[in-house]
Structures are given as C-alpha cells and as structure tokens.
Amino acid sequence: MIIVMKPGVLPKQIREVMERIKKMKLEPHLLRGTERNVIAVIGDERNLHRQPLEAIPGVENVMAVLKPYKLASREGKKERTVVRAHGLTIGGRALAVIAGPCTVENRTMLRQTARGIKALGAHGLRGGAFKPRSSPYAFQGLKVAGLKLLAEARRESGLPVVTEVVDPRDVPAVSRFADVLQIGTRNMQNYELLKAAGKQKKPVLLKRGLAAGINEFLMSAEYIMAQGNYQVILCERGIRTFNDYARNTLDLTVIPALKELTHLPVLVDPSHGTGKREYVIPMARAAVAAGADGLLVEVHPHPDRAWVDGHQTLSLDEFARLMDEVGKIATAVGRTLN
Ligand code: PEP
Ligand code: MN
User: Fold this and answer.
1) Which end of the chain is less congested by CB atoms within 10 angstroms, N or C?
2) Would you say the CB of residue 248 lies under 6 angstroms from ligand 1?
3) CATH level 3 topology of 2-63
C-alpha cells in the first residue's frame, strides 16, 4: 500500500500516519519528494485498515501497489529520486559522469586520473579497492590502503568517490571512506550484502547482474531500500547473450523500461558493457540519447599499463572526446553536462 500525502502536509500529520501504521504492526517508509511525500507500507496488508487512514488530515489517498518492489516502484512515487552525495547529483536534469580506473593501483596514478578527469568535467571518481575477480589468483585490490588513497584523491580534487564493496563485513570501512558504495554485477543477488548496504547511510550504486531480469534487478534495489536507505542508483553494465564480438551486450532498452517502472536514477557503464575501448564512446552517446542519467566509465592515464581492464579503459584524451561528444547528445535530449 502507498499513502499519498497532500502537498504542504505538516510533519505532525506525517508522524500521525506513521504511528498508526506501526500500531497495525506494519512498517512505514517515508519517501520524500519536493512536491509530495508518500508513505509506503510494508508487511502483511491484511492488518491494514484503509478507511481510518484516509480520514487522517493530510492524507490524499491510499492505494495498492501491485509490483513486488513496493519502495522502488513508480506506482506510488511518481516523482523521480535525485541522489546526492558530496556534491554529486544523480537523477536531475544534469548528467553525472563518474570516471576512473578499474582498480586503485597507487597514489600517483590515482592523483593523475582524478586531476585529469576533473579538468575535463567529470563529476565523480571511481576506482575499486576491493575487487571481485573471476580468478582467485588475480589482483584482489589494495583494500583499506586503496580506500585511503581514494579519500586522499577526493580531498585533493574535490571529486566524490564511488567504490565497490564485496563483503558485508567491509561495509562499515567502505562507507567511512566512500561517498557512494558500489555493489557489482556478481553481487547483485548477495542479499546479506544488500541488507548491510541498506543499513548504512551512504548512497548505493547497484549494478545489474550479468543474467538478471528487470524484476530481479528491482527486487535487489528493494532489498537495500527495505532497510531504510532510499538513495539507490541503478546501473546497466551489460548482460550475457550469444553476442561473441563484445564482452557483454549493453542492454540499452532497459533504460526506458526502468524509467517506466521505477523512480530511481539509472546510470550506464559502457566500459564493462562492451569490454572494448573502441566501443565505449559510441555506446556512451547512445546511453545518454536513450535517457540515462549518467555514465560510469573506466579511465586511466596509461590504459596500456593498467593492472585491470586496460582493454576497455579510455585514456584522458579519449575521455575528453567522450565528454565533448556526450555533451552534444545531452543538449539534443534536453540534458546538461555541467
Ligand atoms: C567495476 O565497475 O569495477 C566492476 C567490477 O564492474 P562489474 O561489477 O559491472 O563487473
Ligand atoms: Mn573493470
């Protein structure tokens, strides 16, 4: 159920509704909007009595949410969610471009990357300190030392930091250093990790699983939101198909589909989505044309020397071209890139 509150509702009236729901042994979730607040009700709805709620001052109407992802659904909350983190805004008219290496390697390269991308107009710095690698013998990331380098790069550049967390036990450490926690494709259905990310306060960037359908993707977002963290960003990063010319198939149709089903912002990662440097800029343009709220892209000062994913990583010159070309598409579709 969703309780839609009237515009200009008083905080006291919201509290009253929340209290009544708790008395019915149900869980109220307040989803704030600039125009309207809605209260999503989670739990056994047989306990919910609709009429007395509709009579509370400030309540506009009470309606059923048919989708299983109650908090992520657009059925109740029509207004789009704008996620904010340390100056980074995702989901507004302005696009958000988050760039950086696949993995944090050392201070010098991270500093060079942060300075370079900042000068070219990036809005956030990405870089993995905890890496989920396909091989147990591959480099697993600098871990806490990597987080410290990211925090240092943020202090120097002013860019907010997005970095992955792979284990629920690391959530407190990653959340202390990062501005946005990333949950990678391999962990989209790691429910304990989703719950742990939902219990902390920083926004979460959730990547679509390699073989996840749209319902599964949104149910994973719901796991995070059900813990009280509504600052979730969805990220399409390519799925597995019979395509044998690229690392993955970047499913751009999912952008309008998600825009219809959820109020959460949608990013696209054309680096993992294609696995090939030459395909990154065209797909970044296409993603923005299709309505993405921004991009997550791998950039390194020397991609040929990158420890991980060099083949799909842009140099700073190539990133400059991406920003230039994406900027033109942004204007064409009524978005901005500044
Ligand atoms: C990443 O962005 O660093 C990453 C590992 O991506 P994915 O989870 O999409 O493979
Ligand atoms: Mn990578």
Assistant:
1) C
2) no
3) Alpha-Beta Plaits (3.30.70)
Task: Report pTM.
Answer: 0.97
pLDDT tens sequence across 139-174? 999 999 999 999 999 999 999 999 999 999 999 999
Instruction: Please give the average per-residue pLDDT across 40-53, as a whole number.
Output: 85
Residue 128 Cβ < 6 Å to ligand 1:
yes
Task: Give the 3-state secondary structure of the chain.
Answer: CEEEECCCCCHHHHHHHHHHHHHCCCEEEEECCCCCCEEEEECCHHHCCHHHHHCCCCEEEEECCCCCCCCCECCCCCCCCCEEECCEEECCCECEEEEECCECCCHHHHHHHHHHHHHCCCCEEECECCCCCCCCCCCCCCCHHHHHHHHHHHHHHCCCEEEECCCHHHHHHHHHHCCEEEECHHHCCCHHHHHHHHHCCCCEEEECCCCCCHHHHHHHHHHHHHCCCCCEEEEECCECCCCCCCCCECCCCHHHHHHHHECCCEEECHHHHHCCHHHHHHHHHHHHHCCCCEEEEEECCCHHHCCCCHHHCECHHHHHHHHHHHHHHHHHCCCECC
Considering every ligand atom, which ligand is closest to the CA of 273? Answer: 1
End-to-end CA distance of the chain: 38
Residue of 105, 135, 164 to mutate, ligand 1, most atoms within 8 A of C-beta: 164
CB of 275 closer than 6 A to ligand 1?
no
Task: Give, for ligand 1, the residue of 131, 142, 182 to mutate: max count of ligand atoms closer than 8 Å to Cβ.
Answer: 182
Domain with CATH 3.30.70.1140 in the chain: 2-63
